[in-house]
Amino acid sequence: MDKRVRNLFLSLALLSLVGLFSFKMGQSSVKAEISKSGKLDLSLMWKVKDKLATMYLDKKDIDEEKMSYGAIEGMVASLGDPYTVFLPPSDNKAANEDLAGEFGGVGISLGYKDETLAVMSPLAKTPAEEAGVMAGDLILKIIDKENNIDKDTNGISLDEAVKLIRGKVGTTVTLKMYRESKSEPFEVNLVRDNIVVPSIELEWKESEGKQVAWVKLYKFTDRLFEEWPEMVDEINAKKGSDFGGIVLDLRNNPGGYLQASVLVASDFIKEGTVVTQESSDGSKEVYKVEKSRGKLLNDKLVVLINGGSASASEILAGALRDHQRATLVGEKSFGKGTVQQPDNFSDGSGIHITIARWLLPSGKNIHKEGVEPEVKVVFERDENNLEKDNQLDKAIEVLLK
Hints:
The protein has helices spanning 2-6, 27-32, 42-55, 64-77, 89-99, 127-130, 158-165, 224-238, 258-265, 312-322, 390-400, and strands spanning 85-87, 102-105, 108-113, 116-122, 138-144, 149-152, 172-178, 186-191, 193-196, 200-207, 210-217, 243-249, 273-279, 284-288, 301-305, 327-330, 338-344, 350-359, 375-376. By secondary structure, it is α+β, with helices and mostly antiparallel strands.
């Protein structure tokens, strides 16, 4: 697991996470701790702590552990990188549970669009997806009547958004949202639930007398290292003369383990680079195809992507395109091209640090740019037939040409 953990792509703050501790140092406070020489002056922090201990009115509210975590969170937050975060013990535990594929919440991955809180992706078979929440929706306000919360999201951090949206299973949180295709903002009521998201799912579709394997890859979790090889064997066992190929569906896949994307790519690409990591010092680490795989090298392949395809899923889609192994269908991906390394501390807390950017085989870094599909198809939701999927229909059409 060490290799996988070292190469974790932090999927943008899942709303299922335990609410991050709210004591945060303001930006001015952080700057005040910097001496004229530009070095961190910890003596000032201790002076502030002593003043609080002697002068603050409600001494019972002083919690030194919270102060410590709050100071560290403020220091990390001062970098201005939403993907470099410090996690107190409960939050770090929740993040690790999320990567294991099981958690509680409403099933939304968060990010930012032009500095506005936005849905990166609704996770499959969750309250968010069932309510029609879509990748790219902007979250303007968070409302929780039971907890007297009515909060505009202007300037909100991912930490605070997580804290406000999560809550007791069975209770309701209302999100005021904006979608480009709608003229006015709208509200969505989401009932919080315990959620278990599968890594992958296989469904067979028949078209023009051909059997098409529709592989829905929801997230690159730890379980994928076992589930993917099993699915590959299942596809190969069912292949017949009427086999038309594979549609690999990466829509709303927020990422996960880098090594899992390399594993999947290795069944479709014979040899070569899948992704390159470029660190701050200019050094590069190249991840190549695992030559022990290669079980789907000759099968026709189309990959579905959209605005919720991010991080490790963008690596996979981009690598398959650059190796001319697949046609990409759908909408431009999210555009997250940085790498986070998680580290755990003895008290149970942890930190995720942006350590590198990743480059596609072509050398392109798609951070904030995304991956463009060759065949562009905007998803059209049919309220009268929620099973209808015009993007999937187009992918199958392209596959069978």
